[in-house]
Design goal:
Elements (H helix, E strand, L loop, with lengths): L1 E6 L5 E5 L4 H10 L7 E4 L5 H13 L3 E4 L2 E4 L8 E2 L1 H4 L9 H8 L1 E5 L12 H9 L3 E5 L2 E5 L7 E3 L8 H11 L5 E5 L5 H12 L3 E3 L5 E5 L8 E3 L4 H13 L3 E5 L7 H9 L2 E6 L2 E6 L8 E3 L11 H8 L5 E5 L9 H7 L4 E4 L2 E5 L8 E3 L3 H13 L3 E5 L2 H6 L3 H7 L3 E6 L1
Parallel strand pairs: 2-15, 3-14, 6-7, 10-11, 18-19, 22-23
Antiparallel strand pairs: 1-23, 1-24, 3-5, 4-5, 7-9, 8-9, 11-13, 12-13, 15-17, 16-17, 19-21, 20-21
Helix pairs in contact: 1-2, 1-7, 4-6, 5-6, 6-7, 8-10, 8-12, 10-12
The structure holds ligand EPZ.
Length: about 425
């Protein structure tokens, strides 16, 4: 297993190219099941999770290959509708093959994904959406087994206890595009990744209106065609580097970063003393003055503040002047980074699903353990400003979601290297 070793203190300066979006390309790759033609998906990041989705497609009989950021999914039918536990257990997003399999082949058997380190992750909304379209679904021996000779359009409300669901919307939408008649998805997720999937489906010949809004109207078509499509840039990767620029007191030019997808973050960064300038090529980010100011954040569904940037913001306000409160409304248990940040000298207390962060003057490097993907990124950010050396072990989570992270950071002046443990 690898670890990252970071010598803190260097302000970051220079240019970082933002990669394609992990969370947009995974359901898009899954949706390539909906056609027997070849699809070429561009601007795909070379990440472990993308490799897992390619393996799942391969196991279903869809030959896919990644080459220089482009995945070609070869023409042909699938010959197996089972996504096995071995693959699904390594990546929750594997569940996004459920809707496309059911929509195109009328059958699917997908391992039940279970919970994960950021808390329980139910799938009731996925099943609700597909059942509304007429699927017969049962859980047997840890698998979701779904059947529906031909799905029928319906009106379905997909809001849950914590608001809308990104992948439940993706699954219902991907199933509905080939269903008979009209489907209306109410309280659909509005995240840019769902919008990107919708645009991909439309390019394939689907009939969808209300894209990017909480009401998606889908009129089923008989078949979809193969397309070439480039996914959007990764707003969470961009956001992580925006926070890094302000935290280290440096100046970063983030090529391909798009402000429109990160308005809630930009608003909070400005409260913390950051400046984000928009250019045709991307965003330039730096700190206005000497200090980082405290702020209060509540994570919400889009366009609210994203849960996937919450941990990274905690590393920023850990060094602010004053007290910040961060409240998690999407994953109330997503606070695994706190104990590690406190080991580095932060002063953070957990109170229910809120973290109370009393800003400190300095963090000091030590050995810490990475947990989930975004908590791992938060530790990298803390390591960049901590005094001394920070060693982050178990970094395989980072490789699931950040393309070439140590290379990108070294190129802008960070003292960071990967070593085997
Ligand atoms: C997507 O997960 C992302 N993953 C997550 O990114 C992200 O944190 C999450 O959306 C929220 O933005 C991918 O896109 C691959 P949800 P998803 O269903 O779709 C509850 C990262 O770090 N819920 O939108 O699985 C759920 O428990 C990851 O890149 C139900 O109650 O998340 C949560 O409270 C981690 N029932 C809320 O909805 C359901 O059936 C939102 O989750 C489904 C979800």
């Amino acid at each position: 297993m690898d670890k990252l070793v970071i010598e803190g203190g260097a302000p970051l300066a220079g240019e970082i190219q933002i990669s394609g979006s992990k969370n947009a390309c995974l359901p898009i790759l899954a949706a390539s099941i909906l056609t027997e033609d070849e699809c070429v998906i561009g601007n795909v990041p070379e990440l472990k999770d993308v490799g897992t989705m390619i393996k799942i497609l391969g196991a279903l009989g869809k030959n896919a290959r990644i080459d220089s950021g482009s995945v070609s999914v070869k023409a042909g039918k699938i010959d197996n509708v089972t996504a096995s536990y071995d693959l699904v257990s390594t990546m929750r997003a594997s569940i996004s093959v459920l809707g496309p399999l059911l929509g195109k082949y009328g059958r699917a058997k997908v391992s039940f994904p279970g919970g994960c380190v950021i808390g329980p992750r139910p799938i009731d909304l996925h099943l609700k959406g597909l059942r509304a379209l007429g699927a017969d679904i049962r859980i047997e021996e840890g698998y979701i087994i779904a059947d529906a000779p031909r799905l029928k359009g319906a009106r379905v409300y997909l809001g849950g206890h914590f608001g809308s669901s990104v992948l439940a919307t993706a699954n219902t939408l991907s199933a509905a595009v080939l269903a008979e008649g009209e489907t209306v998805i109410e309280d659909a997720a509005c995240e840019p990744e769902v919008e990107d999937l919708s645009n991909f489906l439309v390019a394939m010949g689907a009939d969808i209106s209300g894209i990017g809004t909480p009401t998606l109207v889908v009129r089923g078509v008989d078949s979809l065609r193969g397309v070439s499509y480039d996914v959007i840039s990764d707003r969470i990767e961009a956001g992580t580097y925006m926070i890094a620029a302000i935290l280290t007191g440096g100046r970063l030019s983030l090529k391909n970063a798009f402000a429109g997808h990160n308005l809630a973050l930009i608003d909070k960064l400005s409260e913390c003393g950051g400046v984000v300038e928009e250019h045709a090529w991307g965003l330039e980010v730096y700190r206005r003055g000497e200090d980082i100011e405290a702020t209060h954040i509540t994570t919400l569904t889009y366009p609210g503040f994203p849960t996937d940037l919450q941990a990274q913001m905690m590393s920023l306000v850990a060094l602010s002047r004053g007290i910040s409160v961060i409240t998690e409304k999407i994953y109330p248990e997503r606070f695994i980074n706190i104990s590690e940040l406190n080991r580095m000298g932060a002063d953070i207390m957990l109170e229910g699903s809120s973290a109370i962060i009393n800003g400190v003057d300095r963090l000091s490097g030590t050995r810490v353990m990475a947990s989930d993907l975004r908590a791992s990124a938060a530790l990298v950010l803390a390591g960049l400003v901590a005094e001394g050396v920070t060693e982050i072990s178990r970094i395989y989570h980072l490789d699931r979601g950040y393309e070439k992270i140590e290379k990108k950071l070294s190129e802008v002046g960070a003292k960071i290297r990967r070593e085997s443990e």
